[in-house]
Design a protein that fits this description.
With 583 residues, this protein is an alpha+beta fold. It has three domains: 164 residues, no CATH class; 183 residues, DNA methylase specificity domains (Adenine-n6-DNA-methyltransferase TaqI, Chain A, domain 2); 195 residues, Alpha-Beta Complex (Adenine-n6-DNA-methyltransferase TaqI, Chain A, domain 2). α3 packs antiparallel against α8, α8 packs antiparallel against α9 and α11 runs antiparallel to α17. The radius of gyration is 32 Å and the shape is elongated.
């Protein structure tokens, strides 16, 4: 089977095998990995280095003759004093040959193809005269983005070059030997480089582009605990298959052609994913924009008729979940009952209860929160509902800054709870190996109980801020640290389940996002949370809303589970197809 046929006959697998990352965003915005296309790119390169991408020509000069010319070229450069004589590399054993090569190819160590290899360096950071010059200075972060390197993130001066770096010539290959193993680039102009890179001058008998493609398939195995790296000796001893000169060029042309097809397939997939997500969001917006119950019913029917084609990605299901919550907090998810006690009466009872708690000395008297102005109200509430501030209906308790010297690696009774335990739409997870155990003095006030409702006060991941979760019932005893807030209700007329879903809705998250501060890690404050707006809902309707939300969330979870199962099958097929093509 030709590679073109392999691509076209299984186009559905290559383009639909997706992997979802943990970060937020739409299809082309970082949440989706096009796993099938990624595997296809890897397969093309693997077929190339195994001699299965271009046909062999028996009239080509064999690679054994090419190796003789390479040896002669090096000997002449040594004689001219342009390079130093290299140590002989060990013969290649049968165990080092990972597969059988085509006729005319030869196994060769990388070092046999290098005329020279040099290490770079870093000029002193404390001397400003060494930096911000006009010489591009490459480091690990500059490799892996483009094939050719002309621009870098950092630049040094001629003084900096003399004081602590090396210059790679145009056409030299830069290879990473530390922190970014496997990364490679070709200098398209003179480029300085740091100590984590090696600059290699390749023999003139080997195509730069062929070497670039082949090196991308080499399985680099580093050593080290903190940072992985390889020694120069290891790099020189890696083994690759070397084809004839003509076949090198044929392989490069074929790889370029097929990678261009992959680029087109990738762009089509991303465009399709993005268009699909925009369609989903547009149709879901018709639900929240509905002006009355009749219009909402019509829009819901339209969406329900295409349920199986609309909600086919995790992003679309997550968008559906947020729409459910938005409809809930707008009073559009369940019908209102005119016999329900209005929320204004519930607010009066809460005020009376707060006053009694102050009188009994159980809470401190709070500063009055500002009344809700008409300009602040994001939408009109149903009859019987009322706008208030979060601090009108609940309190937010801060945690404690536990001292780091009391944390141990070995398992203890108490586990620190952090924003890292939370994820979107009300999730909480125990983090296993990353857990910090506490073994120091402890105030009982900062021990969390099963069912406590918590929110992160810092946004360690996009969309996390304000995401509420209940403390689970498991074998751990969780501690309340200063980066979390504990929500406590004043009156049972406000249900914790409704507040849980409200805090996980975009209504609150958008409001908190507008008031966040911080650059590296965005964070909010108790005052900002307590001043946020909340729709106060009649008690009976809160129960009806949460019952409806729970039912619809189960549907979403079932959709996502089915989708993940289907995606696992596609990932397996992409892997199996790749393995079959290489066997």
């Amino acid at each position: 089977m030709t590679v073109e046929k392999l691509i076209t006959d299984h186009i559905d697998i290559w383009s639909s095998a997706l992997q979802t990352r943990s970060t937020a965003g739409r299809g082309s915005n970082g949440k989706i990995d096009l796993y099938g296309i990624k595997k296809l790119r890897e397969l093309i390169l693997e077929l190339a280095v195994r001699g299965k991408l271009a046909p062999q020509d028996p009239n080509d000069e064999p690679a054994s003759e090419l190796l003789k010319r390479i040896a002669a070229e090096k000997a002449e450069l040594v004689r001219q004093g342009k390079i130093k004589k290299q140590k002989p590399l060990p013969e290649i054993s049968e165990d080092e040959k990972p597969f059988e090569l085509p006729e005319g190819w030869e196994w060769v160590r990388l070092g046999e193809l290098f005329n020279s290899i040099a290490s770079g360096g870093t000029p002193s950071k404390s001397n400003p005269d060494f930096w911000n010059g006009d010489i591009p200075w490459a480091s690990v972060k500059d490799l892996g983005k483009e094939k050719y390197i002309a621009k870098t993130q950092d630049y040094i001066s001629h003084l900096g070059l003399k004081a602590g770096s090396k210059l790679a010539d145009e056409g030299d290959i830069l290879i990473c030997t530390r922190m970014g193993l496997g990364k490679i680039g070709i200098a398209s102009r003179p480029v300085a480089f740091n100590q984590d890179l090696k600059s290699v001058k390749l023999t003139s008998s080997v195509s730069l582009d062929f070497f670039f493609n082949t090196y991308s398939t080499v399985k680099i195995k580093g050593t080290g605990t903190t940072v992985e790296g390889i020694k120069q000796e290891q790099l020189l001893n890696y083994v690759i298959g070397l084809p004839t000169v003509n076949e090198q060029h044929q392989i490069v042309e074929k790889v370029d052609e097929l990678m261009s097809l992959c680029d087109q397939l990738e762009q089509q997939s991303l465009t399709s994913l993005d268009a699909h997500q925009q369609l989903v969001e547009t149709l879901l917006a018709t639900l929240t924009d509905s002006q009355n119950a009749e219009e909402l019913a019509e829009n819901w029917v339209r969406i329900s008729q295409h349920f199986d084609t609309l909600f086919t990605t995790e992003a679309s299901i997550d968008a559906f979940k947020q729409t459910i919550l938005q409809l809930a907090v707008m009073g559009k998810l369940v019908p209102q009952d005119p016999n329900d006690e209005p929320a204004s009466e519930l607010l009066k009872r809460i005020e009376q209860e707060k006053a009694q708690l102050v009188k009994e000395g159980k809470i401190k008297k709070q500063k009055p929160l500002p009344p809700v102005s008409d300009e602040e109200k994001p939408f009109e509430l149903p009859v019987g509902w009322v706008w208030a501030r979060v601090g009108d209906i609940l309190s937010l308790k801060n945690g404690y800054a536990f001292k780091s010297n009391y944390f141990v690696d070995s398992k203890r009774k108490h586990v620190l709870t952090t924003p890292g335990n939370f994820y979107e739409t009300g999730g909480f997870r125990y983090r296993g190996g990353k857990t910090k155990y506490y073994d120091g003095p402890l105030n009982e006030e900062f021990i969390l109980r099963f069912g406590d409702l918590m929110i992160p006060m810092t946004e360690q991941a996009p969309g996390l801020l304000g995401s509420a979760a209940f403390i689970p019932k498991d074998e751990h005893i969780y501690l309340h640290n200063q980066r979390l807030g504990k929500l406590e209700l004043y009156n049972e007329g406000i249900t914790s389940d409704f507040i849980f879903w409200f805090f996980n809705s975009q209504l609150l998250r958008v409001e908190l996002a507008r008031t966040c501060t911080g650059t590296t890690v965005r964070h909010t404050s108790p005052d900002r949370v307590l001043n946020a707006l909340v729709p106060v809902v009649p008690s009976n309707e809160q129960l009806r809303i949460t019952a409806k939300i729970n039912k619809l969330m189960l549907l979403c979870d079932a959709l996502k589970s089915r989708l993940q199962s289907a995606q696992q099958t596609k990932l397996y097929l992409a892997d199996a197809l790749t393995d079959a093509a290489l066997s």
